[in-house]
Design a protein that fits this description.
alpha+beta; about 325 residues; about 25% helix; 2 domains; Alpha-Beta Plaits; globular; 7 helices
Length: about 325
């Protein structure tokens, strides 16, 4: 049996051993582990600001996307001592999360076939703080700094219908003084994010839940407010539960573990409005690297330090 293809390399001063580089992780297109690692190494500097200081949940595909996969929250056995980990108390007990705050960590995770990177809307530095928001003191709840409108298309809907829904949701966010940022999920969905001043997660959840009801009331032919899978057919559901502190969403620039190596890709609103086919909103790793070289980080508004406050209920339109 041939020896596994492996190399020793240095990433920003860290030494790593990369193994099984010729293993094909996306068999439909022959996309190998070496290519996955290369993509994450090149995108790391743009990806890191969106995941740094956030508890990282990974989806690993050790035998590629055609094989079994598993979610991983705890740092795996053999985690290098230079990889940052953070112990966080959860409803399921303590979890030692990996925190990606340097390029070598991103490459190390890619070497583990952690194709998907998911993060919550809160930062670790915002945990276990007491804050006053709109006159109410909240304790023991993370302060989130992003709103996410996760648009989930029902059966029979494509990303084109989801794009139309994203434009409508973005108008609502903009009317509330927020700056909406669109991103493909890497599948059929689209997320619309907006940076907010640190706010208790439950308040953000309530805001998006109200938005879900409002969108359905004003355009019931496009939006559905019910969680029922059967009722979602032919319409778009705003999954407001993605704003709960215990939930996370796919990180900008993360690969997806689908048939092809599509990337969760930040977009321009012109691209969303002009989309005429699913291929218009589907991007490969090479295409994403070219986009970043051409446009920079299209999700940079999520990193702006001057963040608007979330509207209080009495300021919201009906």
């Amino acid at each position: 049996m041939a020896a596994a293809h492996s190399i020793r390399t240095r990433i920003a001063g860290r030494e790593l051993s990369l193994v099984n580089l010729d293993k094909v992780l996306y068999p439909a297109v022959g996309y190998a582990k070496a290519e996955v690692i290369s993509y994450y190494a090149q995108i790391a500097d743009v990806l890191l600001p969106h995941v740094a200081d956030r508890a990282l949940t990974r989806v690993r595909f050790p035998d590629g996307v055609a094989g079994p996969s598993f979610y991983e929250k705890n740092a795996p056995a053999g985690t290098p001592d230079w990889v940052r980990t953070q112990r966080i108390e959860t409803s399921d007990g303590p979890v030692a999360y990996v925190v990606a705050d340097e390029p070598a960590t991103v490459v190390w995770l890619a070497n583990l076939a952690a194709l998907e990177l998911h993060v919550p809307q809160w930062r670790i530095s915002a945990l276990d703080r007491t804050t006053t928001v709109a006159g109410a003191v909240e304790r023991g709840e993370p302060l989130v700094d992003r709103v996410v409108i996760d648009l989930d298309p029902g059966a029979g809907m494509s990303i084109i219908e989801t794009a139309r829904a994203a434009l409508i949701a973005a108008e609502r966010l903009a009317a509330d003084g927020l700056v909406p940022v669109p991103q493909t999920s890497g599948n059929k969905g689209i997320q619309v994010y907006a940076a907010v001043a640190p706010t208790p997660a439950r308040q953000v959840w309530s805001y998006v839940k109200r938005l879900n009801v409002t969108l359905h009331r004003h355009q019931p032919e496009l939006f559905v407010s019910s969680m029922s899978i059967a009722e979602r057919a032919g319409r778009i559901y705003v999954d407001y539960n993605q704003n709960l502190a215990a939930r996370n969403t796919i990180a900008p620039y993360s690969l997806r573990g689908r048939e092809r190596p599509n990337v969760a890709t930040p977009l321009t609103w012109d691209e969303v409005a002009a989309a005429g086919s699913p291929d218009d909103l589907r991007f490969s790793p090479d295409e994403v690297l070219a986009r970043v070289a051409r446009h920079g980080d299209l999700a940079v508004d999520l990193l702006h330090p001057d963040r608007p406050r979330l509207p209080t209920p009495e300021r919201l339109p009906g």
